[in-house]
Amino acid sequence: MAEKVSALDRYPAYRTDIGIEVHVQLNTASKIFCSCSNAQTDQPNTHICQVCCGHPGVLPVLNKEVIVSAIKVGLATNSEISHRSLFARKHYFYPDLPKNYQITQDKLPICTEGHVMITKEDGTQKKIRLIRIHIEEDAGKNIHAAYTNESFVDFNRTGTPLLEIVSYPDIENAQEAKAYLKALRALVQSLGISTGNMEEGSFRADTNVSVRKKDAATLGTRCELKNINSFKFIGDAVEYEIERQINALEDGKKIIQQTLLWDTKTKTTAPMRSKEEAADYRYFPDPDLPIIEVEKDFIEAIKKNLPELPAAKAHRLQKDYGLTSYEIEVLTDDQEFVTYFEQCMQYTKSTQLINWLLRDVMGYLKEHKLSLDQCKITPEKLAALVTLIDNGTINTAAAQTVFTACAKDGSDPLTVVTEKGLQQIGDVAQLEAIIIDIIAANPHMVAQYKSGKDKLFGFFVGQAMQKTSGKGDPKILSDLLKKHLS
Ligand code: ZN
Ligand code: MN
Prior knowledge:
The protein has about 475 residues and is an alpha+beta fold. The protein has 3 domains: about 290 residues, no CATH class; about 110 residues, no CATH class; about 60 residues, Orthogonal Bundle (Arc Repressor Mutant, subunit A), CATH 1.10.10. The chain contains 16 helices and 17 strands. Strands 1, 2, 6, 7, 8, 11, 12, 13, 14 and 15 form a 10-stranded mixed β-sheet that branches. α3 packs antiparallel against α4 and α13 crosses α16. The chain is elongated and about 95 Å long. The site of zinc ion has 8 residues, from loops.
């Protein structure tokens, strides 16, 4: 199928401006203003107390780890770290917000004016500037039962620490939007401050899309795509919105500023009933929380202990393991895979390993809808499998059988080879006898091959593989065939 042409290519007079707000859930041990566990649980209303449930008269106490995490992201995005910042109350009513206000940052956020580097479609680098990064608390969850018309509230999530990362509208198309989000997620994962899991809502993006004529001085009216939980869907939704907005303007219509939801079935956007249309949140400094003062030394200490960041990591993967930029891109899509890969490389130096990881392990996980931590092939086992190929114990066809068996039940590759008798036949005399038989049994084919039908070589290889039940050493077989057919 041909690549779909973007509306931006079909309407070259237009340009798109996209700004993205990302909410990152921090993986601190406790919540932001109380000592409740911040761990995920499916038992509703078990990680709650008077503070996170907003009882009257309680006082919030700030979790210092939240500040540390925010500074880490600030440093990793080249932001200015504010030496003084402030919490504010943002007022609105919603059943999952028991205090009727969210503690967030308004006038003095913890970080400002940073940037994230992305790789554009043509391979060049582009800077996406950040307006701010601020700290806030998450709300609970409203759960609407499908058929009984009942609604429930789960407060486990109230008081989960969040970082809200707000970009300038520097993003110009769907590819850049995805690249930006991937870069940002890789960053928070590398820093170890969040799982970055989009399905679980630990990394949520609100994407503001607007279009305008290239010569227009001001931005067009924007529409917000709310909480889309996969990179692919965000890319699709952005592409759809660009086209919808350009078509509307071409038809002489006006764009209405609104919040939209992406329907993954119809692949269209639809307006969402919004709780905060034109709201006045009546922000004011939270009187229960002191001004946050961050000393220079405190920032310096965090800076010294920053882990390896994605750009440095990509450089090292290329330098230490000789990976191509394509391999690095796929591998670093999820930091878990980088860790897995590096664990594998402690057992083998094989250049084949990356292929088995990108093709077979990732393919298997996708096919069976598994995550990497559910994968039964440990790094040690994958390395063992590749070593068996490298040292000639099995050929690649047999390795596929071994892989499937190990992936299923986590068995040891060598045990599978022994049990199933998959050892490669590398005995030249034994293979030569088989080749001589094949040649004797197919005089007609031999004659055709010798008269110039080179393609028939494959027929003989196939025969030899069949006669050895797929276990013949392909290199030796090929050499022997060449010798006896010439
Ligand atoms: Zn609590
Ligand atoms: Mn927010």
